[in-house]
Design brief:
90 residues, alpha+beta, Alpha-Beta Plaits, 4-stranded antiparallel beta sheet
Length: 90
């Protein structure tokens, strides 16, 4: 099996959520479930709300659904959206 490059958009519950703490929680969860090289971007949504874009390498033999479910269980997360998932070459 190979490695997939994954991009997930995470929407916090409010603009008051500490995004740096949320990033630490997300990174820990990604690495604990099998992901590697997690990095982040932020995208303004509206009215001060910013989404976190998580980018990481994911082993194709592991179902991504487990990670999605775990991310949705974080109290500060409103919803998530898998934006892109493709096989990584190189």
């Amino acid at each position: 099996m190979g490695i997939a490059a994954v991009k997930i958009k995470i929407f916090p519950t409010s603009p008051d959520v500490d995004l740096e703490e949320l990033k630490k929680t997300i990174k820990s969860l990604v690495e604990r479930t099998g992901g590697k090289n997690c990095s982040f971007e932020q995208e303004p949504i509206a009215f001060g709300l910013e989404a976190i874009i998580a980018l990481f390498a994911w082993p194709e033999e592991i179902e991504l659904q487990e990670l999605e479910d775990s991310l949705n269980e974080i109290e500060e997360v409103s919803s998530i959206q898998v934006v892109d998932m493709r096989r990584a070459f190189g």
